[in-house]
Structure formats: structure tokens, C-alpha cells
Design goal:
438 residues, alpha/beta, Rossmann fold, 2 domains, 17 helices
Length: 438
């Protein structure tokens, strides 16, 4: 395979100048790497104005939280000179690779590349193309926040693929509704007819490699981090592992935990909320302010309830995946209360390796809820009161019920693993392209 990605560092730009290079994966499989260098101003507009935060915020129902939600001339310039330009560079790289290997399938990933498929299709009409979108898809009303030409171009670009994949049926239905609303496309039985061709739209939740992840959980770095955690942990541990992203809803989680401590003083000194957060997109002002709000919310709980060496909230903002996996093994309650999430792999990773029959509290707006909701305690991400009640329910749940729920999640994750997800993508693409050929 050939992996095409943006050149970000100085070293990446040096590699990009060399053309495609041969690499080897951790498992020993050979692949080709092609890095695409962009004009710095174009990439900044692409990433920091259009992709993040605008598209990310819109698709996570957060657009009204932008400091300047009115999308005027500056946004349209960023769209033309940044987002469109970067997509064109990716399309050019794909077309170069297709000249070398005409029969290769093209897999586009996520919201950064909505325009590239149409550019490729115009030059390579027979190419087999699949685009998987890893974030939520909102109903048509949400997309009205974008200029008409932008929302039309996004949906038209995606429908240049043979297959469009999303994590859940909920996101799939919303995408189909948008295609009807914005393109007057014909939708029938999960297929969209537009511009003289049919695109299959599917829903398959991504997963992980259970064997690889369990091996990671048994690695030396994780075991050392776990040893330190066990030496310091209280009787009960509430955990969240996330990025400092507004969509993850960290502040409301701390507020709910504060309500729990207010109403249940018997838990004082016995429980800690451990939040292991990876700093996210600190070049974007809204993310910087949200990180500050997270810190303020944690300090408010600690200042109100902390005593005698007990720290109710343990907030760690750093990139330390070994510590996160160690905490996965040790939590009693895992809080995943995202405002919206395309899927949320933490909800799958952590239960797979947990050793304490930990209970998953899962947002109804996380894509993983469609798959794991039967075994999780469901929470409304906007209802702080409800989250406080759910925390207490989980912390006091009978052992046999805790075990039943954890085992249900594990069985689902093991059966529907990453290999199965990839196989469905390949099968969808094979079926779509064979139908076109017939």
C-alpha cells in the first residue's frame, strides 16, 4: 500500500522532496510513504480555520461556541486558498499514484479531505474510491450555517466516491438526508444517485486489534505506570481519558462529580476522579480557552471538597499513553460523556483490559453508544444532574452486575475487531465497483 499524508515538520518536508519512499510497519509489512508539502499559509487556513474548528465544531454541534461564529469573507478566503488548495494537493498526489498503480483502491479518511474525491474522479473516472468519515454527521439544519457553495461542495465531493462510510446508522441517515436536501440527489436503499453515478453509504463502527492492545497493556511501560497508580489510588477510581477538546465535555463531567460529592459525603476520602487529558490543538484560541476552563473546573472541586491530603480530582494534562492504559486497567467507573462523538475508541479500549469490573458511563451522543449501550450506563451529555446520579449508580452497582456489563462489552469488541471492520470496508467497495462494472 501507499500512505499519503501531509508533511508537517522540517524533516517531513525533506522527505517530501525525495518523493515516495519505502517504509516498514511495526509488524514488518512494507509500504510506501508519500508526504505532501503545503504552503504554510494555505495549511494554516485549511487546518486552523476550516477543518478545525469550523467543520469539527459544526459536526460536533458546537459551532455556536466559536468566538466568531459568523462565517464571512475571511472564512470563504480560507476555504478557497486553504481547504480547497490542500485538497487539490492531495488529489494530485493520489492521481500520481494511480498512474503508477491504476488498479489500486483509494481510501480517503475523515473531514480534512471532503473535496479531494471529486478532483480525483474528474481525472480518473474508473478509480475505486472509499471515504470513511470518523466524526458525526449532523442533520441538514446544522449545515445551513455554512455558505451554500461550501455545503454543496462537501456533499458533492463525498458522492464522487464509490462508498462513503460512517460509524453509525444515525450518522448514515443524517448524511442521506443532507444529500437529498442540498444536492436534490435520489436516495434509495442506502444508495445515493448523483451526477450520473451511484454511491453506497454504509455504517460500520471502527474498532481495535484486541491482541495488540492486550499486549500493550502487559508491556513494561504500562506495568510500571500501573504500579505507581496502584500505590497512590483511593478505594474507588473514576476515570476519563480524553483530549482537551470542547466536544469531550470535560467541564460538565467535573461539575457532575462535584454534585456527587455534595450529595454523598460518605464518599469523601474514598474516591478520586482521575482525568488524563492530552493537550489538543493549542494553536486554536477556542481550544486554549477550553483547556483553561477545564483547569478552573477541576480546581473548583478540589478547593471545595479537598481535605487531609485527599485530592478529589487528579488532573493530568500531558501526552502519556502508557499512564492512560494503566488507568484503563484500574478504573471502577469510566466516564465518556462527549457532547457528540463519531465513535469514541476509549469506550472500547478501556473495558477490554480493565481488571476491576469497571462500569462504563457512555454518552447517548457517542457513536459507540449504538454498539455498547446495552451494557453501559447511558448519560445525557448536557444533563449534569443525571450524570451525577449515574456516577453514584455505577459506584454502588452490585459486583455481579458490574461483571456482566464488562463482559458484554468485551465480547462485542473482540468479535467486532479492527480486522472485521476493515474487511467490511473492502467488501463494500468490491460490491460497489462490481455493480458499477455490471
Amino acid at each position: 500500500m501507499t500512505w499519503i499524508a501531509s508533511a508537517l515538520s522540517d524533516e517531513d518536508h525533506a522527505v517530501a522532496a525525495e518523493g515516495t519512499i519505502e517504509e516498514t510497519s511495526r509488524e514488518g509489512s512494507p509500504y510506501r510513504l508519500r508526504l505532501v508539502a503545503h504552503d504554510p499559509a494555505a495549511y494554516a487556513a485549511f487546518y486552523n480555520v476550516v477543518a478545525n474548528p469550523t467543520l469539527w465544531f459544526l459536526q460536533h454541534s458546537l459551532l455556536d461556541q466559536l468566538a466568531e461564529p459568523t462565517l464571512g469573507a475571511a472564512f470563504e478566503e480560507a476555504w478557497d486558498e486553504g481547504y480547497a488548495a490542500v485538497n487539490a494537493a492531495f488529489a494530485h498526489a493520489v492521481l500520481d499514484e494511480l498512474e503508477r498503480q491504476p488498479d489500486a483502491a483509494v481510501f480517503f479518511q475523515d473531514y480534512h479531505l471532503y473535496l479531494a474525491p471529486r478532483l480525483v474522479r474528474e481525472r480518473a473516472p474508473a478509480a475505486a474510491m472509499l471515504h470513511f468519515v470518523h466524526i458525526p454527521w449532523q442533520e441538514p439544519a446544522a449545515w445551513l450555517a455554512l455558505p451554500e457553495r461550501v455545503r454543496v461542495a462537501i456533499h458533492d465531493g463525498l458522492l464522487a466516491n464509490d462508498v462513503v462510510g460512517l460509524h453509525t446508522e444515525r450518522w448514515r441517515r443524517a448524511f442521506l438526508d443532507c444529500c437529498e436536501a442540498f444536492l436534490d440527489a435520489r436516495v434509495e436503499a442506502g444508495s445515493v444517485e448523483h451526477d450520473g453515478r451511484a454511491t453506497c453509504v454504509t455504517a460500520h463502527p471502527i474498532s481495535l486489534d484486541p491482541a495488540e492492545f492486550r499486549a500493550l497493556a502487559a508491556s513494561g511501560a504500562v506495568l510500571e505506570a500501573e504500579r505507581r497508580l496502584v500505590a497512590e489510588r483511593p478505594e474507588l477510581l473514576v476515570l476519563r481519558v480524553d483530549r482537551t477538546d470542547p466536544s469531550k465535555n470535560v467541564v460538565r463531567g467535573f461539575e457532575a462529580y462535584g454534585l456527587l460529592l455534595e450529595r454523598h459525603p460518605e464518599l469523601h476520602g474514598r474516591v478520586q476522579f482521575l482525568a488524563l487529558l492530552d493537550p489538543s490543538r493549542q494553536d486554536i484560541p477556542e481550544y486554549v480557552e477550553h483547556a483553561a476552563a477545564i483547569d478552573r473546573a477541576a480546581r473548583a472541586v478540589n478547593e471545595r471538597f479537598g481535605r487531609d491530603g485527599w485530592e478529589p480530582v487528579g488532573l493530568r494534562v500531558e501526552d502519556d499513553f502508557a499512564a492512560s492504559v494503566a488507568a484503563y486497567k484500574q478504573y471502577d467507573v469510566l466516564l465518556v460523556n462527549a457532547v457528540f462523538d463519531g465513535l469514541n475508541l476509549v469506550a472500547k479500549e478501556a473495558p477490554l483490559v480493565n481488571e476491576r469490573d469497571g462500569v462504563l458511563l457512555l454518552s447517548e451522543n457517542a457513536g459507540a453508544h449504538a454498539e455498547l449501550g446495552a451494557w453501559a450506563v447511558s448519560v445525557d451529555p448536557f444533563d449534569v444532574e443525571g450524570q451525577a446520579r449515574a456516577l453514584y449508580e455505577a459506584l454502588t452497582m452490585p459486583p455481579e452486575e458490574r461483571h456482566r456489563r464488562l463482559e458484554g462489552i468485551r465480547a462485542q469488541v473482540v468479535e467486532h475487531d479492527l480486522a472485521a471492520w476493515l474487511a467490511t470496508q473492502l467488501a463494500d467497495l468490491d460490491l460497489a465497483t462490481s455493480t458499477i462494472g455490471a
